[in-house]
Structures are given as structure tokens and as C-alpha cells.
Specification:
Blueprint (H helix, E strand, L loop, with lengths): L2 H8 L3 H12 L2 H17 L10 H18 L20 H19 L3 H12 L4 H8 L3 H29 L1
Helix pairs in contact: 2-3, 2-4, 3-4, 4-7, 5-8, 6-8
């Protein structure tokens, strides 16, 4: 496969690959680096890629697996980029403050969960990963993932309700 064929075959998927990497890694620079590494891997194997019937699916699988390997390695720490809430409706400053306060409290509760529960709830509820993807990243089976997720959600709900009741009595 020559350079021109490679560009036509794989470069149109750059945006999609970047979005997948960003969703899993939560860091723009790391996502871009990983996509570039993926393209290097594809380029190194370009002679064998002519038999690939679906280059998009192949590329997506490669990027996902590279992300999972990186997350699983333990050397990678998520450098979370905070996303501020944007004004969608006319929200009063008091309501906006309350929503941010509640979000801050939920993050605090998640941060105090056991490590496995933190991972599972973050991957599922924050990043939107499928159960299969969570299994790949954590090495847990489907039953364990569902149990950990259920326990984490229950604990978050309980702690948030305690905090919420305390806040309402305080005001």
C-alpha cells in the first residue's frame, strides 16, 4: 500500500478515532498522541492492511484496544479536564450555584468510594463505556462489574441524600 492509498483509506477516520480516544482518556493531548501512535502502527503494517475489508472498524478497534491497554497499565493516570456547565436555559445564579454544589458533592462521594467502585462508576456513568469495555479495562467479569456498579450507585445515592437532608435542615 502506498502513501496515497493509505491516506485515502485511513485518514478520513481521524476525527472519529480522536473522539473515541478522548472519551476514554479524558485528555485532549493524550488522545491526540494515542491516535498518532495508532496511525504509526497502521503505517508500519500497511502491507498487510490491503486484506482488511472494513478499515474503519479495524481502526476503531485498534484505538480502543490501545486506550484500554494504556488505562489497564496502571502507569496512566487520568488527567481530568474539567468541563464547565454552559448556560442552556435562563438559570438564576442561585440555581446554577446549587447545581454546581450538587455536582461537586457527587464528585466528592465518588472520590471516597473503594477504588474498584470508583473505576466502574466513572467508566460507566461518567465516560459512558459499555459493560464489555469496562470488563476489558478492569479485567473483571460482567457479574462483578454489575455488582460493583450497583453498590457504588447505592452508596452515592445514600450519601447524597444524607448530604441533601443535612443541607436542607441547615438552611
Amino acid at each position: 500500500m502506498d502513501a496515497e492509498s493509505f491516506k485515502k483509506e485511513f485518514l478520513p477516520y481521524h476525527r472519529k478515532l480522536y473522539c473515541i480516544a478522548y472519551k476514554l482518556l479524558e485528555n485532549a493531548a493524550d488522545a491526540e498522541d494515542l491516535v498518532q501512535e495508532a496511525y504509526l502502527k497502521l503505517w508500519d503494517k500497511r502491507e498487510g492492511l490491503t486484506i482488511i475489508s472494513n478499515p474503519e472498524a479495524f481502526s476503531v478497534t485498534l484505538v480502543k484496544n490501545m486506550c484500554f491497554d494504556l488505562l489497564r497499565s496502571g502507569k496512566y493516570t487520568l488527567n481530568k479536564q474539567s468541563v464547565e456547565l454552559t448556560e442552556v436555559h435562563n438559570i438564576s445564579p442561585a440555581d446554577d450555584f446549587e447545581a454546581k454544589d450538587e455536582a461537586r458533592q457527587v464528585k466528592h462521594i465518588i472520590a471516597h468510594l473503594p477504588v474498584q467502585q470508583q473505576k466502574v462508576v466513572t467508566l460507566r456513568d461518567v465516560k459512558g463505556c459499555s459493560y464489555e469495555e469496562i470488563e476489558q479495562v478492569t479485567g473483571l467479569n460482567a457479574t462483578n462489574v454489575r455488582v460493583l456498579l450497583s453498590r457504588a450507585r447505592k452508596k452515592i445515592r445514600e450519601e447524597f441524600n444524607k448530604w441533601s437532608n443535612y443541607e436542607s435542615r441547615r438552611n
